[in-house]
Specification:
By secondary structure, the chain is of the alpha/beta class. Helix content is about 30%, strand content about 30%. It has a domain at about 60-185: Double Stranded RNA Binding Domain (2-Layer Sandwich), CATH 3.30.160.150. Strands 1, 2, 3, 4, 5 and 6 form a six-stranded mixed sheet that branches. It is flat.
């Protein structure tokens, strides 16, 4: 004997909703749980506001001062900083201090250390260059210091075995340092 196929109306049996939660109550419960576990009391923190100060339109990058016997690193840092400001901020780099809204300057110190040495001969296998800068960013219109003697550090390693030298590592470290200085230029949260 052949079974009859049930009709759609036979397949669907309406059930009365017995859930006590409403969508709004479920959302409130999720919000409370999230704020309890995350340690935050609200679910905000995102904004469409610009991350850089809006009252600035141009920056003059002054050559960083260096007290080190190694020359050239201050040029690399100043050049890398100018390029990063141009690329990653809404500001325009100007070549004249008289036409700039702000000026960024600082002092740089250069350190070098040995990371690993060869066991038998005692010669260095890997070395590190550490660049440390103290940065100032001044608004020339108001006289306010946007960054006041903030210390920033960046380092890079190099190895003679890989045909790398101090110049290679100092260039990498200068680029990292420029990136960190641009991050300092962002508004405080």
């Amino acid at each position: 004997m052949k079974k009859k196929k049930p009709k759609n109306s036979d397949k669907c049996i309406s059930h009365k909703r017995t859930s006590h939660f409403r969508p709004g109550a479920l959302m409130l419960l999720c919000t409370l749980l999230c704020s309890g576990f995350c340690g935050c009391s609200r679910l905000s923190g995102y904004s469409n506001e610009p991350i850089f100060p809006e009252n600035v339109s141009s920056v003059y990058v002054e050559m960083f001062d260096s007290q080190s016997f190694r020359r050239g690193v201050e040029y690399e840092l100043s050049d890398a900083l100018a390029k990063r400001i141009e690329a990653e901020t809404p500001y325009k780099i100007v070549s004249s201090r008289d036409r700039a809204d702000t000026i960024i300057s600082g002092q740089i110190s250069i350190g070098q250390s040995v990371l690993s040495i060869e066991r038998k001969r005692g010669r260095p296998l890997e070395k590190e260059v550490e660049l440390r800068a103290v940065v100032n960013w001044k608004n020339l219109k108001t006289g306010d210091l946007l960054i006041d003697n903030q210390s920033v550090i960046a380092s890079a390693s190099y190895s003679d075995m890989q045909m790398q030298d101090f110049k290679y590592a100092s260039s990498l470290a200068a680029n990292k340092l420029a990136q960190r200085i641009v991050e300092l230029m962002e508004k405080k949260w």
